[in-house]
Amino acid sequence: MDSSVARSRFTERRSTRKAVLIWSFLAPSLVIFLLYRILPLAWNVLLSFEAWSPLKPAVFIGFDNYREMFQDDDVFWQALWNTLGIIASAPLGIAIALGLALLVNSNIRGRDVYRTLIFLSYPLMTVAVAIIWRWMFDERVGLINYVARSLHLTDQPIPFLNSFTWALPCVIAANIWQMLGFYMIIILTGLQTIPGNLYEAAEIDGANSFRRFLRITLPLLRPSLFLCFVIGMLNSVTSFDLIYVMTNGGPGHATEILVTYIYKLAFNQTRFDYAAAITVVFFLLLLAVTWGANRLSGGNVGAVEYD
Q1: What is the pLDDT of residues 15-39, one digit of tens each?
Q2: Closest by alpha carbon to 243, among 131, 90, 139?
Q3: pTM of the prediction?
């Protein structure tokens, strides 16, 4: 009896020491996460219900900021639709990357060179990408206008970045180009984990290439495609530096997105309270889009299965 009690106490002490060791390793990360993520988020939510600026004390005003946002602020709605448009462009980039990944995963000559060339767009700094594409879309010396006029596709140069029609598609094109290499690598990794015997069995059963793609490749690539969408969505809606350098939200507010509008409200107009309210809506939008993407992907993408 005594040995059983001693064994039980020893197991208890070992479990306690193990728990203390685990929490000791986790504590620094959890403290940093609390200080730089949870507390700022909580303060931001509280600030959205107040009238506050650095030069005067905070006054509780309830839902006034949200009422102004949804009823009176046309720029907010413009920025919201632009943000949704950029999010909607992520599947287009992923589809292009899927085609490129299938191409460079096949037995073609020089595929390693192609992989490298496609991936080169991603490591570039976003500011450098914005400068490159701003030059390419330039009305006077831009490469695209030069090619269009050389091929006699247009007589007059097109003011891409100064056009209410073309400015946002140009920004979207630059964003897709930058992320294309990253998408391709993620999808290529997923393709190389698919067992080859599945394709062989399907081919023996008479399935053509298109049916093998639909029945084998796409279902097994679902986690990779979901990861690409989430990262692409987050990159799209936080492309502050790309838009700031290319258009600064213009012309007018044609390329304004929520993150650039929040920055201008907070640091140009010192309306930190109103910017906080838009940040809350922005955060809820990201949660909703991510949840919707997960549901469309089957509802359990990224889940860990235990035997």
Answers
A1: 888 888 888 999 999 999 999 889 9
A2: 131
A3: 0.83
Single-letter code of the amino acid located at 79: A
Sign of CA dihedral 287, 291, 294, 300: positive
Strand partners, 50: 60
65-112 per-position pLDDT tens digit: 999 999 999 999 999 999 999 988 989 999 999 999 998 888 888 878
Q: Distance of alpha carbon 222 from its chain centroid, rounded?
A: 17
